[in-house]
Design goal:
11-stranded mixed β-sheet; globular
Amino acid sequence: MDSQILEPIVSTASGKVRGQLREGIYGGTYYSFDGIPYAKPPLGKLRFKSPQPVEPWLGIRDCTICPPMCIQSNYYNGVIDGVEDCLYLNVFTKKLRSAKPLPVLAYLLGGRYANGDASRNSWGPDYLMMKDVVYITIGFRLGALGFLSFPEPELQVPGNASLKDVILALQWIKKNCQYFNGDPDNITLFGHSSGSMTAQMLMYLPQCENLFHKVILMSGMQMHLRRIPQLEYRFAKHLGYKGKENNHDILAYLSALPAERLCDVKIWTPEELKQCPHFVFSPTLENESASDAILTKDLLDMYANKQSWCHSIPLVIGGSSFEGLMNYNYFNKEPELYETLRKHPEYLLPYEVREKYDMITQQQLAKKLIHLHLGAKELDIEQSFDLMDLTSYDFLYHPIYRYLKTRIPNAKAPTYLYRFDFDSPHFNLFRINHCGRDVRGVCHVDDLSYIFFMPDSFKLQRNTKEFKIIECMIDWITAFALNSDPNCEKLSSFVWKPLTADALYCLNISDELSTVKWPEEEKCVLWDQYFKEAGIRTF
């Protein structure tokens, strides 16, 4: 029995932490421990480098106030927020004592590898804390601070410091979750968007074996590591560097700049901006001779490895039914955009295709892909939703299809597919804020309204459809965390079956819950044929 303590003190392997008892939006209580350090502050000589384990502290550390976010430039207004000293995690537990330890859910936030706040200010645990689980969010470095990369081993910046932050945090969780009533042998890693991409890659790293035991990938697949030519040199010049392309000098220059300057990643030319680029700094291949390198192989080779340890762990994968709606503002700009796209249809190609071919071939391939989604219709603003549909397949649906085609034959554990298709006029918060209230469709990030209490969330009546969807999402997520099987009370009218090689059936989460043949599969088959005809490896 868990006797409630207003200011609980927990002894971890690093030192004692003081948390607090909090009340959820729907009543009930949970324990919150905000801002527990899992690494040394990545400052000074540790900037851009792999994280170092936290040094133990004396006394009791106050963990009742949310830590600042990792320093970043606001995606919408360019304001710099956060701090460089940000390698902290936040632990929320329903009970500090129970007959059995609780399943652990470790969350990786999305944000294009450049934005996001890991605290309860952004991802409130209120809904998850209606269940007996431990929920942990991880702060990790973003942008240049997380992904600067140089090939010279002596510089000790091979890249992917952000991913290494997550690995160190997972090691801390594995070692310490028991002190928060968590089960170190039942940890679920889940992430959204770029957080999902990170989780997917970590599944294939030997350094992560046994750090987590099942995974939920939500609206994010990383199938290709894109490397912008001369990125570090170009970035340094953008920030005022006047020297030659010498990586030793570039690193010295960037290391001496204030962290706020490093958040200015607006390196794109006006022509590049027309191509709606998503990432500047992101995961990259590392020089395998670096002692701390983790990503040294092509991702498709990693995923196709039949011996990978992750084939033995259960997986849930899925996304929203209109992911590409996140590009609404791009495709609903002035008509001049469509003049550009008619002249440069290759801007709509997946990067994997563009990087392989010359301009003439790119344009030929682009016209075939556009025809797949628009038919004989002209490229203009009237077809904006068709083009957003194209980006849905580029960003998520076809990568899911490709990935499942190699995962299912090799996996020794079940794989489940879901599709979030609940179109609320007032609670799909990302779409409302991003596209306006008059636009409908279930957008990228809309599902998170039903998992976390977010800054724009508000208390719903329990008899609303929206609250029922919250209950459904929390039920299957926590059932999967507990039992490695997402079937639960809210899905009791049918069985959500694991995928087989014969057919892709998904849980369709809409006004009505059902299992259906994955609606996106038919067009994914066409995309697969297109990739093969273009000479692009699907697997």
